[in-house]
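sorry for the late reply, my laptop died twice this morning and i had to redo everyting from scratch. anyway the thing you sent over, i finally got around to it. pasting the sequence first so we're on the same page, its 760 residues, then the predicted structure underneath. double check i copied it right bc i was rushing
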Amino acid sequence: MVSEKMAFLEPSTPQELPTTHHNQNHKQFNCRRRFLRGFLFASLGLTVLHVCSRTTPAVITNPVEPAKSDVCLTPACIHASSEILYNLSPNFKELDPCTDFEELVCGGWRERHDLRPDQGDAFTGTIMSENSQLLLRHILEAPYPKSSKHSYFSPMQLDSTSLSADEENFNKLTDAYKACLDEPTIKELGIAPLAKIVEQVQQSFPVSDSSSGNALSETILLLSRYGVSGLVSSGTGADDADPDVVAVSVAPPWRIGLPSKERYDDDALVKKYQGVVVDVLSQLGPKENKDVLAAVVDFEKKLAAASPSTEERQDVTKYYNPMSLKDASELVPKIDLDHIISTLASKNKVERLIVASPKYLKELQKILDETDPAIVQNYFVWKVVQAFYSYVDSPVVKPYKGFVNELAGKDPNSAPERWRTCVNHVDDGLGWILSRFFVEKAFSAEAKKFGDLIVSDIKDEFVKKLKATEWMDDDTTKKAIEKVHNIVQKIGYPTKSPDIMDPDNLASYYKTVNISSETFFSNSLSVIAFAVADEWSTLGKPVDRDQWGMTVPTVNAYYNPPGNEIVFPAGIMQFPVFDVDVPAYISYGAFGSVAGHELSHAFDSTGRHYDQNGNYTDWWSDGTVKAFEERTKCFIEQYGNFSIPGPDDKPLHVNGRLTLGENIADAGGLSASFQAWKRRSAQKPNAHLPGLEHFTQSQLFFVSYSNWWCGKSRRDTAINRIYTDPHAPKWARILGTMANSREFRESFQCKSKKPTCELW
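ok and here's the structure:
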């Protein structure tokens, strides 16, 4: 099964650009292969439950601090100190960190940051992403860097032949960027490019003759080639139970229409959405009865009801259902899965599928039997609109653009600055070329070395944790330690598949992507065709373990269970999360906790199902599983008590089961990183930061961690995240994680030193 990667942050762009084809459909089908489940974007609540078992080594409760005279006054240290002071609540000295740490750390951040009209939420990671965006903008709007100073790993050090390839790659980037910026041409073309695809869909599924020639299957196939999930999503990825083999999987679309199935229970929202669908589709003609157009949403509602919950989509024990292609096809005979898969697979023979939800396919058959073909046709057209609306500028799609904004609580007419949209467009389509130029500006050999050291330190500390864990039996502990040793750590940027520092390799990788500086929509289609072909080309080959699931500028990180790997793009290894020139407690507190979080995913509610080689198998003893599940009940209840105002103003509670893996990873990662820092600082004491004499270095470790989560969210965005995001809200990731940290409680001398919930 295309397995789920566990990312530090929620998988959405910080500035919440309109969903494009490539990130909504191609990437979202790969929610198992590409979905990054881990640490970065997410929100709070607390319950007093206790776990009695000791699962962590003893910590030093009163650490010896360096002399206060040892203060770092370099520009880097002054910058780091000012960042913390800027974020702290103005009355931070008067607040009790044991009960109100989030306000203490982030009160100033909220006072000094407002959301732009185009933002649904923002936090420290958003600012980091936007800093990276600005750097990328400067790269894309400047001439090819022929004469500037380059790092030792720069392709500029290569011979003239490679240099030529490097410049051609750069020109491809800038052409894509220029075409995206050319709003007059985009506006002049209007709806025409999208209308051509709509016409193809209507011809593929003619209402008058939809029952002949297997029009349904041909239309699903057509949409698949455009990377659009119609009634089913299909794709490839590592087989969870045999992670060196590429498997094909079939799943319900990750998103039916509204952000989650629960949103279809909001009658007012559904009515408004229905009006938008009718408004847009009636303009795409031929003129259709408005009742038929409105029924598209009723059809979606039935599909949503048949779809698995977000929680089930994250659960490998639920979505991993291998079966023969023949048996899968019998679940939904109206759709010729054999034809669709065989065509997409080209010359590769496919006999076995991973079916993420057999129940959905059975229900889909019933729903199709009861649905007028005219409704189905308009549903397909609507999927095209949702996939491609952001690539056109036309009054036809304006109602839907406004609705998408309102759905996130934003100004209906708001939009990011065009250059932001275009930087993301280039990163989405030609990300590895862009990564090559980003890494030279924003990364260094020293940063990579320090990052490797932090991750290695945390692996060592996690082994110690496993040895000290009394609820695991000896055999399971031994295998778990072997799994930690086997974890592959990828830091900074890829040097294979593709090698971003080899211009010829990059040119070959993107050779089928045709880019013009004048054809934005066509460029986008070329990128889509490349992405779909690239995914299906993996069939019949061993899984490429050198591939990365995130481009280098990405401010995020992930753990990939079948690959048993933790990946940290250079984008997340930036100020204020990571800096080689400031005291180590800053980088260990923030980036180190990210690293520990991703490593902890190897042993969370999902990762525990994968052994030291990445195989989905039962390798824990029954007694250890039972002890694990008993301890995780505490996390489920603790986070389930956190809530936000819901659509009806009643409390909408965090789903403690959906967020369980992330909450376990937050707690385990923070503890492992703290222990790693303490051992390093005992060998090499850290200097103090100026102006922060109120805090000990141990306390600043936790301030640095929590600074990462300072943010704001619009109500509607927060509601959508509760239903769709496996991460708790950001404020909850501070309060819940601090409540679960013995080291935090000891560092701040809280009355109770016992964590609320404890696992690793």
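Residues 227 and 532 are 6 Å apart (CA to CA).
thats about all i looked at so far, will dig more tmrw
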